[in-house]
Amino acid sequence: MKSDITAIILTRNEEINIKDCINSIRQIVKRIVVIDSFSDDKTVEIARGLGAEVYQNPFENYAKQYMYGVKKANADTVWTLRIDADERLTPESAKELSTLCDKHMTTEVAGIVLRFKKNFLGKDLYHGGVYPWKKMNCYKTNLGTIEDRMMDEHIVLSSGSIVEMKSDCLHFDFKTLEYWINKHNWYSSRETVDFFQNLDKPKSKKDLDSKTWFKMNVYYKLPLGMRAYIYYIYRYYFKLGFLDGKEGKIYAFLHAYWYRYLVDAKIYECKTMGVRYVGKGELK
């Protein structure tokens, strides 16, 4: 018997991932709603063929696209699952998630934290603060909202407690290094927009996910440029990223000195040159 869950998936040219994603959840959820930003591959065809409801909407950012999905789904299920096309449940994690949702239908538990194992350059990463990568992506429909942010948006609960899964889910966001670099360049522009938006309209701790609050109130208080160096040292040495070999080294270096330093450089550019990034639209 399926659990009382509606799954929402955002897509754009995910024909290589969408089948495995849907197949990993279809046995435990009642509805699968795909919000596609006008893919020009077979994503929509594959999703519909697997029984998903598909709606299309122009992409502005993940938060607004997800909010559009929530509105279109108009879910009457107790639970909502947010899952990306490059993520999937294993048989073990699917069973555990279904069990937790059934168990807490009427309890105070309102959110379930999924834990993910990342694969980078064909290798599963277990160190460097990457494993397990935790996200509260399953929540009671009437108690969860998403942060209205340009980047790093999280689900926020209005009330209730949270439980964490023990089984791993899988995350296959790596395609090629060229794609990874282009994607994080795209991310960095959105992160820059988000930084200035938070400076203009700061939010209290109760209105932000804890990770978002830490980034805005601790990480960004460190000297510009220096914080990327500290980030690398923390991930590669203190969080033992070196134990993941060459792949762990490349991941930590690029994440710190490509992505995080690029965000700093764009913030500096905006401050010194008087420019602002827009951060809208799809990854090309």
CATH architecture of the largest domain: Alpha-Beta Complex
Domain count: the total is: 2
What is the level 1 CATH name of the largest domain?
A: Alpha Beta
CATH topology of the largest domain: Spore Coat Polysaccharide Biosynthesis Protein SpsA, Chain A
**Could you describe the largest sheet, including whether it forms a barrel?**
9 strands, mixed
User: CATH superfamily of the largest domain, please?
Assistant: Spore Coat Polysaccharide Biosynthesis Protein SpsA, Chain A
The run of helices and strands is EHEHEHEEHEEEEEEHHHH
Secondary structure category: alpha/beta
N-to-C span: 41 Å
Would you kindly provide a written description of the structure presented here, covering whatever features stand out?
This protein is of the alpha/beta class and 284 residues long. The protein has 2 domains: 5-171, Spore Coat Polysaccharide Biosynthesis Protein SpsA, Chain A (Alpha-Beta Complex), CATH 3.90.550; 177-273, no CATH class. Helices cover 40% and strands 22% of the residues. The strands form 2 sheets. Strands 1, 2, 3, 4, 5, 6, 7, 8 and 11 form a 9-stranded mixed beta sheet that branches. A two-stranded antiparallel sheet has the order 9-10. Helix 2 (43-49) links the parallel strand 2 and strand 3 (53-56). Helix 5 (177-200) packs across helix 8 and helix 7 packs antiparallel against helix 8. The model has no long low-confidence stretch (mean pLDDT 93).
